Amino acid sequence: MKLSEQQILQKTRLDNLHDVRNLNLWGQDIDNVSVLKEMPAVEVLSLSVNKISTLREFMHCRKLQELYLRKNEVQNLGDIQYLVSLPELSVLWLSDNPCADTPNYRAQVIRALPALTKLDNEEVKPEERAQVEE
Question: Is 5-133 CATH 3.20.20.70?
């Protein structure tokens, strides 16, 4: 199912996608989030338990601070590069996606996203950060 402007505005009770700061639509069979291009100011996205297979569209959410994508279908850990341009992203939950089974998954994500403070509901420890920066 494609995430639509109407669905978002109905859920948030707002009139404009640019005004959306927080969106929670878990468990909706969503597989297309291209509408995120219209939401540059969103700060928190809870889209767990859906069918999202790529992180590409999230790169448009420049103010994103927290992204919850547990139990989706993201295959390629290389997609994490789409999140590199999000300077405020501090919380990411990607567990229970195929990409989370990649060897050294946690270290790779922490290395790619230096502003992360929490990954998969677990604090990023200073020693983890130091290890990936070596």
Answer: no
Which residue, 56, 61, 64, 18, is CA-closest to 9? 18
- Strand intervals (E) in 55-101: 66-68, 91-93
Q: Could you count the other beta carbons within 10 Å of the beta carbon of residue 132?
A: 16
Helices (H) and strands (E) in the chain, counts: 3, 6
Residue 58 CB neighbours (<10 A)? 24
Strand partners, 108: none
- pLDDT tens digits for 79-121? 999 999 999 999 999 999 999 999 999 999 999 999 999 999 9
Domain ranges of the chain: 5-133
**Gap between the Cα atoms of 38 and 35, Å rounded:** 6
Q: Which of 101, 36, 49 is nearest to 75 (CA)?
A: 101
| Assigned token pair, 128 | 């983890």
pTM over 0.90: yes
